[in-house]
Amino acid sequence: MTQPHKQIRLANGMPHPVRKRFGQHFLHDQAVINRLIDAVHPKAGEHLLEIGPGRGALTEPLVTSGARLDCVEIDRDLAASLKDRYASSPLVNIHQQDILKFDVNSLIDNGDSGKSLRIIGNLPYNISTPVLFYLLRFSQLIRDMTFMLQLEVVQRLTAVCGDRNYGRLGLMVRYYCHTEHLFNVPSAAFSPRPKVSSAIVRLTPHQDLPLPVKNVGTLDQVLRTAFSQRRKTLRNSLKTLISEAKLQSLAIDYKKRPETLQLADFVAISDALDTGAKL
Ligand code: SAM
Protein backbone atom coordinates (compact mmCIF):
# COMPACT_ATOMS: atom_id res chain seq x y z
CA MET A 1 0.00 0.00 0.00
CA THR A 2 1.40 3.46 -0.87
CA GLN A 3 1.96 5.81 2.10
CA PRO A 4 -0.30 8.90 2.13
CA HIS A 5 1.58 12.22 1.71
CA LYS A 6 2.24 14.15 4.91
CA GLN A 7 0.47 17.49 4.79
CA ILE A 8 1.57 20.92 5.98
CA ARG A 9 -0.31 24.22 5.85
CA LEU A 10 0.76 27.12 3.65
CA ALA A 11 0.72 30.74 4.88
CA ASN A 12 -2.80 31.16 3.38
CA GLY A 13 -4.05 28.16 5.42
CA MET A 14 -4.27 25.82 2.39
CA PRO A 15 -3.05 22.23 2.98
CA HIS A 16 0.01 21.17 0.95
CA PRO A 17 1.11 17.55 0.42
CA VAL A 18 4.84 17.34 1.25
CA ARG A 19 6.65 16.25 -1.92
CA LYS A 20 9.57 13.98 -1.09
CA ARG A 21 10.87 14.08 -4.66
CA PHE A 22 11.53 17.80 -4.18
CA GLY A 23 13.38 17.24 -0.88
CA GLN A 24 10.76 19.20 1.05
CA HIS A 25 11.68 19.72 4.72
CA PHE A 26 10.25 23.04 5.83
CA LEU A 27 11.95 25.14 8.51
CA HIS A 28 9.68 26.10 11.38
CA ASP A 29 12.13 26.89 14.22
CA GLN A 30 12.08 30.69 14.48
CA ALA A 31 15.41 30.78 16.38
CA VAL A 32 17.15 28.94 13.51
CA ILE A 33 15.46 31.17 10.91
CA ASN A 34 16.60 34.31 12.80
CA ARG A 35 20.15 33.01 13.15
CA LEU A 36 20.35 32.22 9.44
CA ILE A 37 18.94 35.62 8.45
CA ASP A 38 21.35 37.35 10.88
CA ALA A 39 24.24 35.49 9.22
CA VAL A 40 23.12 36.79 5.80
CA HIS A 41 22.25 40.26 7.11
CA PRO A 42 20.35 41.34 3.96
CA LYS A 43 19.96 45.07 3.31
CA ALA A 44 17.88 47.37 1.10
CA GLY A 45 19.63 47.94 -2.22
CA GLU A 46 21.05 44.39 -2.35
CA HIS A 47 19.99 41.74 -4.86
CA LEU A 48 19.09 38.34 -3.39
CA LEU A 49 18.25 35.01 -4.98
CA GLU A 50 16.47 32.43 -2.84
CA ILE A 51 16.54 28.83 -4.03
CA GLY A 52 13.54 26.71 -3.00
CA PRO A 53 11.54 29.23 -0.94
CA GLY A 54 8.91 26.56 -0.16
CA ARG A 55 6.29 28.05 2.11
CA GLY A 56 8.34 31.18 2.71
CA ALA A 57 10.06 30.65 6.08
CA LEU A 58 13.15 32.54 4.87
CA THR A 59 11.40 34.53 2.15
CA GLU A 60 9.39 36.66 4.54
CA PRO A 61 12.38 38.08 6.49
CA LEU A 62 14.29 38.51 3.20
CA VAL A 63 11.39 40.57 1.79
CA THR A 64 11.23 42.61 5.00
CA SER A 65 14.89 43.61 4.54
CA GLY A 66 13.83 45.75 1.54
CA ALA A 67 16.29 44.03 -0.81
CA ARG A 68 15.37 43.01 -4.36
CA LEU A 69 14.47 39.31 -4.18
CA ASP A 70 14.21 36.66 -6.89
CA CYS A 71 13.00 33.20 -5.82
CA VAL A 72 13.23 29.99 -7.84
CA GLU A 73 10.81 27.27 -6.75
CA ILE A 74 10.07 24.11 -8.75
CA ASP A 75 6.82 23.15 -6.99
CA ARG A 76 3.88 24.74 -8.88
CA ASP A 77 1.60 24.96 -5.84
CA LEU A 78 4.25 26.54 -3.61
CA ALA A 79 5.31 28.96 -6.35
CA ALA A 80 1.65 29.94 -7.00
CA SER A 81 1.04 30.54 -3.30
CA LEU A 82 4.15 32.77 -3.05
CA LYS A 83 3.15 34.66 -6.23
CA ASP A 84 -0.20 35.46 -4.60
CA ARG A 85 1.41 36.45 -1.34
CA TYR A 86 3.90 38.86 -2.93
CA ALA A 87 1.75 40.06 -5.86
CA SER A 88 1.88 43.62 -4.60
CA SER A 89 5.63 43.63 -3.74
CA PRO A 90 7.47 45.22 -6.70
CA LEU A 91 10.89 44.03 -5.50
CA VAL A 92 9.88 40.35 -5.31
CA ASN A 93 9.85 37.98 -8.30
CA ILE A 94 8.84 34.33 -8.04
CA HIS A 95 10.09 32.05 -10.85
CA GLN A 96 8.40 28.65 -11.06
CA GLN A 97 11.38 26.74 -12.41
CA ASP A 98 14.04 24.11 -11.79
CA ILE A 99 17.13 25.88 -10.42
CA LEU A 100 19.31 23.48 -12.45
CA LYS A 101 17.80 24.98 -15.65
CA PHE A 102 17.53 28.55 -14.43
CA ASP A 103 19.73 31.09 -16.24
CA VAL A 104 21.22 33.07 -13.35
CA ASN A 105 22.66 35.54 -15.92
CA SER A 106 19.09 36.57 -16.77
CA LEU A 107 18.76 38.19 -13.32
CA ILE A 108 21.63 40.58 -13.89
CA ASP A 109 20.75 44.01 -15.21
CA ASN A 110 22.26 47.48 -15.37
CA GLY A 111 21.62 48.08 -11.68
CA ASP A 112 23.94 45.19 -10.72
CA SER A 113 27.68 45.53 -10.79
CA GLY A 114 30.40 42.87 -10.49
CA LYS A 115 29.84 40.20 -7.90
CA SER A 116 26.57 41.50 -6.52
CA LEU A 117 24.17 38.58 -6.27
CA ARG A 118 23.65 37.08 -2.81
CA ILE A 119 22.19 33.54 -2.87
CA ILE A 120 20.35 31.93 0.02
CA GLY A 121 18.61 28.59 0.35
CA ASN A 122 17.57 25.70 2.47
CA LEU A 123 18.52 23.43 -0.40
CA PRO A 124 16.76 20.19 -1.37
CA TYR A 125 19.35 17.69 -0.11
CA ASN A 126 18.73 15.20 -2.94
CA ILE A 127 20.19 17.65 -5.49
CA SER A 128 22.49 19.80 -3.35
CA THR A 129 25.74 18.69 -5.04
CA PRO A 130 24.48 19.31 -8.62
CA VAL A 131 23.10 22.69 -7.47
CA LEU A 132 26.50 23.69 -6.03
CA PHE A 133 28.33 22.66 -9.21
CA TYR A 134 25.73 24.47 -11.32
CA LEU A 135 26.07 27.73 -9.36
CA LEU A 136 29.88 27.68 -9.61
CA ARG A 137 29.40 28.48 -13.33
CA PHE A 138 28.02 31.86 -12.28
CA SER A 139 30.59 32.60 -9.56
CA GLN A 140 31.68 35.82 -11.32
CA LEU A 141 28.21 37.26 -10.57
CA ILE A 142 27.94 36.09 -6.97
CA ARG A 143 28.97 37.96 -3.82
CA ASP A 144 28.14 35.12 -1.42
CA MET A 145 25.96 32.02 -0.93
CA THR A 146 24.53 30.91 2.40
CA PHE A 147 23.02 27.44 2.38
CA MET A 148 21.41 24.91 4.66
CA LEU A 149 22.85 21.56 3.67
CA GLN A 150 23.29 18.09 5.01
CA LEU A 151 26.01 18.31 7.71
CA GLU A 152 28.11 15.72 5.88
CA VAL A 153 28.11 17.91 2.74
CA VAL A 154 29.18 20.96 4.79
CA GLN A 155 32.00 18.86 6.25
CA ARG A 156 33.08 17.93 2.72
CA LEU A 157 32.98 21.60 1.66
CA THR A 158 35.15 22.74 4.56
CA ALA A 159 37.46 19.69 4.88
CA VAL A 160 41.18 20.36 4.82
CA CYS A 161 43.97 18.20 3.45
CA GLY A 162 44.12 14.89 5.35
CA ASP A 163 40.48 14.93 6.55
CA ARG A 164 38.24 11.92 5.91
CA ASN A 165 35.78 14.16 4.01
CA TYR A 166 38.43 15.84 1.82
CA GLY A 167 37.68 15.23 -1.87
CA ARG A 168 36.43 16.42 -5.25
CA LEU A 169 33.39 18.42 -4.07
CA GLY A 170 35.31 20.42 -1.44
CA LEU A 171 38.29 21.03 -3.73
CA MET A 172 36.18 22.15 -6.70
CA VAL A 173 34.10 24.50 -4.53
CA ARG A 174 37.24 25.86 -2.85
CA TYR A 175 38.83 26.47 -6.23
CA TYR A 176 36.14 29.17 -6.64
CA CYS A 177 35.12 30.10 -3.08
CA HIS A 178 36.18 30.60 0.51
CA THR A 179 34.03 28.21 2.62
CA GLU A 180 32.85 28.62 6.24
CA HIS A 181 30.85 26.17 8.36
CA LEU A 182 28.63 28.60 10.31
CA PHE A 183 26.51 26.40 12.62
CA ASN A 184 24.64 23.11 12.92
CA VAL A 185 20.87 22.78 12.84
CA PRO A 186 18.92 20.00 14.63
CA SER A 187 16.42 17.87 12.67
CA ALA A 188 13.67 19.10 15.01
CA ALA A 189 13.89 22.52 13.28
CA PHE A 190 12.15 21.06 10.18
CA SER A 191 8.79 19.61 9.30
CA PRO A 192 8.93 16.81 8.32
CA ARG A 193 12.24 16.06 10.07
CA PRO A 194 15.08 14.97 7.78
CA LYS A 195 16.83 11.70 8.70
CA VAL A 196 20.24 13.40 8.46
CA SER A 197 21.86 16.24 10.43
CA SER A 198 22.02 19.71 8.88
CA ALA A 199 24.33 22.72 8.95
CA ILE A 200 24.71 26.20 7.48
CA VAL A 201 27.63 27.00 5.20
CA ARG A 202 28.73 30.28 3.64
CA LEU A 203 30.55 30.22 0.29
CA THR A 204 32.23 33.45 -0.79
CA PRO A 205 33.56 33.47 -4.38
CA HIS A 206 37.15 34.77 -4.56
CA GLN A 207 37.54 38.23 -6.11
CA ASP A 208 40.39 36.75 -8.19
CA LEU A 209 41.01 33.01 -8.38
CA PRO A 210 44.04 32.33 -6.13
CA LEU A 211 45.13 29.27 -8.17
CA PRO A 212 43.87 29.74 -11.75
CA VAL A 213 44.09 26.54 -13.76
CA LYS A 214 44.52 26.33 -17.54
CA ASN A 215 41.39 24.20 -17.95
CA VAL A 216 38.92 23.71 -15.13
CA GLY A 217 37.43 20.64 -16.87
CA THR A 218 40.83 18.94 -16.67
CA LEU A 219 41.12 19.79 -12.98
CA ASP A 220 37.70 18.22 -12.40
CA GLN A 221 38.75 15.10 -14.32
CA VAL A 222 41.97 14.80 -12.27
CA LEU A 223 40.03 15.13 -9.00
CA ARG A 224 37.36 12.66 -10.12
CA THR A 225 40.01 10.11 -11.11
CA ALA A 226 42.17 10.60 -8.00
CA PHE A 227 39.30 10.38 -5.50
CA SER A 228 37.38 7.58 -7.21
CA GLN A 229 40.01 5.28 -5.67
CA ARG A 230 41.02 7.30 -2.65
CA ARG A 231 42.78 4.41 -0.88
CA LYS A 232 45.19 3.93 -3.78
CA THR A 233 48.48 5.76 -4.22
CA LEU A 234 48.61 8.50 -6.86
CA ARG A 235 50.84 6.28 -9.00
CA ASN A 236 47.97 3.79 -9.27
CA SER A 237 44.92 6.01 -9.25
CA LEU A 238 46.31 8.51 -11.79
CA LYS A 239 48.22 6.07 -14.00
CA THR A 240 45.79 6.48 -16.89
CA LEU A 241 46.42 10.25 -16.86
CA ILE A 242 50.03 10.93 -15.85
CA SER A 243 53.31 9.05 -15.43
CA GLU A 244 55.32 8.54 -12.24
CA ALA A 245 58.20 10.50 -13.77
CA LYS A 246 55.97 13.48 -14.57
CA LEU A 247 54.57 13.50 -11.02
CA GLN A 248 58.15 13.48 -9.71
CA SER A 249 59.08 16.39 -11.97
CA LEU A 250 56.21 18.34 -10.33
CA ALA A 251 57.72 17.50 -6.90
CA ILE A 252 54.67 15.34 -6.10
CA ASP A 253 55.36 12.06 -4.28
CA TYR A 254 53.60 9.36 -6.32
CA LYS A 255 53.46 7.07 -3.28
CA LYS A 256 51.06 9.44 -1.50
CA ARG A 257 47.28 9.13 -1.38
CA PRO A 258 45.07 11.85 -2.93
CA GLU A 259 43.82 13.21 0.42
CA THR A 260 47.40 14.32 1.26
CA LEU A 261 47.61 16.70 -1.73
CA GLN A 262 46.74 20.41 -1.64
CA LEU A 263 44.60 22.12 -4.28
CA ALA A 264 47.82 23.67 -5.68
CA ASP A 265 49.19 20.14 -6.35
CA PHE A 266 46.05 19.14 -8.27
CA VAL A 267 46.25 22.39 -10.25
CA ALA A 268 49.89 21.58 -11.11
CA ILE A 269 48.91 18.07 -12.31
CA SER A 270 46.02 19.49 -14.33
CA ASP A 271 48.20 22.15 -15.98
CA ALA A 272 50.84 19.53 -16.81
CA LEU A 273 48.14 17.53 -18.62
CA ASP A 274 47.17 20.62 -20.59
CA THR A 275 50.63 21.33 -22.00
CA GLY A 276 49.90 19.03 -24.92
CA ALA A 277 53.23 17.22 -24.32
CA LYS A 278 53.31 13.43 -23.92
CA LEU A 279 53.13 12.63 -20.21
N1 SAM B 1 12.99 27.33 2.05
C1 SAM B 1 11.95 26.49 2.61
C2 SAM B 1 12.17 26.33 4.08
O1 SAM B 1 13.30 26.58 4.52
O2 SAM B 1 11.24 25.95 4.78
C3 SAM B 1 11.87 25.13 1.91
C4 SAM B 1 13.14 24.31 1.93
S1 SAM B 1 12.94 22.66 1.30
C5 SAM B 1 14.31 21.86 2.06
C6 SAM B 1 13.54 22.75 -0.39
C7 SAM B 1 12.69 23.56 -1.33
O3 SAM B 1 13.30 23.51 -2.63
C8 SAM B 1 11.27 23.04 -1.51
O4 SAM B 1 10.38 24.11 -1.49
C9 SAM B 1 11.30 22.38 -2.91
O5 SAM B 1 10.04 22.36 -3.55
C10 SAM B 1 12.30 23.25 -3.62
N2 SAM B 1 12.99 22.57 -4.74
C11 SAM B 1 13.29 21.25 -4.86
N3 SAM B 1 13.94 21.02 -6.02
C12 SAM B 1 14.07 22.22 -6.64
C13 SAM B 1 14.64 22.62 -7.88
N4 SAM B 1 15.24 21.73 -8.71
N5 SAM B 1 14.59 23.92 -8.23
C14 SAM B 1 13.98 24.84 -7.41
N6 SAM B 1 13.40 24.50 -6.22
C15 SAM B 1 13.46 23.22 -5.83
Question: How would you sum up this structure, described in words?
Answer:
It is a single chain. The protein has helices at residues 30-40, 59-64, 76-85, 128-136, 151-158, 168-176, 216-228, 234-237, 244-249, 263-273; strands spanning 7-9, 15-17, 26-27, 47-51, 68-73, 92-96, 117-122, 142-150, 177-185, 190-191, 198-205. α4 links the parallel β7 (117-122) and β8 (142-150). It is elongated. It has ten helices and eleven strands. The strands form three sheets. A seven-stranded mixed β-sheet has the order 6-5-4-7-8-11-9. Strands 1-2 form a two-stranded antiparallel ribbon. The longest helix has 13 residues, at 216-228. The structure holds S-adenosylmethionine.
Radius of gyration: 21 Å
Q: Tell me, rounded to a whole number, the average pLDDT.
A: 94
- Major sheet attributes: 7 strands, mixed
Number of helices: 10
Stretches where pLDDT falls below 50 for ≥5 residues? none
Structural class category: alpha/beta
Q: Quote the beta fraction.
A: 15-25%
Annotation, overall tally of beta strands: 11
Shape label: elongated
What's the SSE pattern? EEEHEHEHEEHEHHEEEHHHH
How would you concisely characterize the structure shown here?
By secondary structure, the protein is α/β, with parallel strands linked by helices. The protein has helices at residues 30-40, 59-64, 76-85, 128-136, 151-158, 168-176, 216-228, 234-237, 244-249, 263-273; strands at 7-9, 15-17, 26-27, 47-51, 68-73, 92-96, 117-122, 142-150, 177-185, 190-191, 198-205. Helices cover 31% and strands 21% of the residues.
